[in-house]
Amino acid sequence: MTYASYEDFRNEFGDDDLPDDAEIRVVRAIDRASRLADTYIRSNGINVPLVDPVAIADVRGSVLDIARYNAWPDTDSENLRKRYEDALAFLEGVATGKIHLVSQGQTTTGSKLTNIRLFRA
């Protein structure tokens, strides 16, 4: 199971400069990024693939950033590399328990950080 689709990719990044083979490359990269996310998530004892829509939405942005970086590895962009590194840091936080994925209907209690939502400009 993947946590994003080609349509999600196009909505996130646009499609003005996508080459003809973009869909194939992006779908493969999303699959690869989703499997990588599963590895991090599983290392914290969470069952994968995720099925809760709220948790999936929290992971989707990181999966898209990793997929974008992997789909065009020869692209030399500081922004692209930074977003990739931030996505890996987010997943590492999930793996180490510093970031907890929240399920639909779950609320946060106490002083511990329970969820982080990433908003992109």
Helix content: 55-70%
Q: What Rg is obtained from the alpha carbons, in whole angstroms?
A: 15 Å
- Structurally, the number of domains stands at 1
Distance between the termini: 27 Å
- In quaternary terms, these chains amount to single chain
Fold and architecture overview:
By secondary structure, this protein is an all-alpha fold. The chain has one domain. Helix content is about 55%, strand content about 0%. It contains four helices and no strands. The mean pLDDT is about 90.
Index terms:
single chain; 121 residues; mainly alpha
How is the secondary structure organized here?
Elements: H1 6-13, H2 22-42, H3 53-71, H4 78-96
Helix pairs in contact: 2-3, 2-4, 3-4
In short:
The chain has helices at 6-13, 22-42, 53-71, 78-96. By secondary structure, it is mainly alpha-helical. It starts with 5 loop residues before the first helix and ends in a 25-residue tail after the last helix.
